[in-house]
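Section 3.1: Structural characterization of target chains.
Under the original work plan, the team committed to producing a structural model for every single-chain target entering the pipeline before any wet-lab resources were allocated. The record below documents one such target. The sequence was received from the expression subgroup and is listed exactly as submitted; it comprises 474 residues.
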Amino acid sequence: MSASKSGTANAPVPDEPEPAAAGAAVDEAAGAIGARPAAGAELLAALLDGMDAALCAFGADGTITHWNREAARILGWSPEEAVGRRGFAGWAVRAADAGEVEARLMAAMEAPGRTVHEFALLRKDGSRVLVRVQSARVLDAEGAPAGVYCAFGEVHAQIDLERSIALSEALFDNASWGVVLVDVDLRPAVVNIHALRALGTDRASLLGRPLGEHLAQGVDQLEGALHHVLAEGAPRGINEIWVTLAGPADEPPRRRCWRNGFVRLSSPLAEEPVPLGVGWLFHDVTEDKLAELETDRLRFRSGQLHRAGRAAAEAEDPMEAAGIHLDFALAGFADHALIDLMEPGGGGRLIRTAAAPAGGSSAPVTGGSIPARYPPGHPALRAVDRTGSVRASAPASAGEEWAGDRQWPAGVVHSLCTVLRSRGRILGVATFLRGPSRTAFERPDAVYAESVSALIAASVDLAGELKRGKHLPG
């Protein structure tokens, strides 16, 4: 394999006297640090052998003056075998390439800055290795070129390093996932643009500050995951965390679902693995999760309607069938449910007829012939006036009296009232109630409640017809 390519670094660096030139340069360096020349030479040898990069130096005549331990590891030639040879010809490079390689290396004596080359060298066992070489001239005390030093490494190792750097830059510039590097104190140290957009903040406000300043809910779960990664390593697979982003008090909270992956960062230079922090990668999957949850909810509610219909068909008493529909509707939907029927005779008042507590079965209310004392503007009365559904929630400042004033069980903070309507007549109101552990009723909840109310209304209507002694067709 012949010499392949060469180039010059983008920006030349000032020439500096290097301690690799010869004994005079070593003596000068040793005198500068107040040490004997021999001590300076030992220090120089220790520094050269401790370098991660392979390094060799040539005098002005092309003779090798320095050869460190990494160069010996890559090529297999010991310092004793390399130092004193003139050039690489005949031992570390093919004869056909020797002239070109030597010319390129020694040309650095006439050029300021660093030059970069790639060519093949020979190992002691006869195999070849492609190396990337950075070379620069060495100046003596008078500023005249006195030799060349070369730092080189295997090309595949350089490519691996460049690939790692390119990956890091791509993650922080163009990644479609949020990427945050968190230090051992769980404070963001580096963050990419996607993560800033997801968190709704800027880099200056995020870096070095606790995550709790940006997350109103979910921060405990996230920090717990970060602690686990620091202590035991990344968990298998990915996990999902629901968070609520902190924002202005006058704006509704932003609840998001993030799909997260974690990697523990450890220093490659430490003798023992020392965690430097955690690489946190996340992706917003809120829309997908909401669609998935809605699909599951619809499937469950459809199944409940089906099961309720089959159970109600076996009931001999239509009011029992109405209670069955109410019981099945409560599962996963509300904490309490009530049935208020219109007062017989067209009085326009509502009479509490049945109630279904959470975890129990609906039962007729004792003294159900007494009209409920609903105040004007009560959600049940508004539902009758509108012939539709009415949703209501307690204000944040409301206490226990909010539910009591509306004749509802203690602890209720959300309500949904739907009319019971059959054959063009309003028969009453079905009320579904939730406690503070649940969210407020939404429009999809009202649609489901209306479907349940239609079934309840049909059973109530049938019960009324039977009570009046009317015979139904068939």
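The chain is about 35% helix and 25% strand.
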